[in-house]
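Invent a record, attention on tokens:
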Amino acid sequence: MQKGVVRRTSVPPRAGDQVWISPAAGVHGRGTWWAVVVSTTAAIVDGTAYLRVVPLDDIGGDARVQTCYVRLAGLLVRSTP
């Protein structure tokens, strides 16, 4: 996959992929932002996952890992080569 190509996914993204965190992905009350995936964990409900992410804007500064419970059908993923 080319770098910069954004796609929807039905499988959890890999570590290093960038994801668009938004209400469409089931993450409410945090706004919308790009994040880099640190790790993923399968959730009990099909089509969902727990993602440990770092906001893209925080990389190189005071990066804090956040855990998000996401709905994969609403998640946009930009894969790393």
Observations:
- Residues 6-78 form one domain.
- DSSP finds no helices and six strands in the chain.
- Residues 13 and 77 are 7 Å apart (CA to CA).
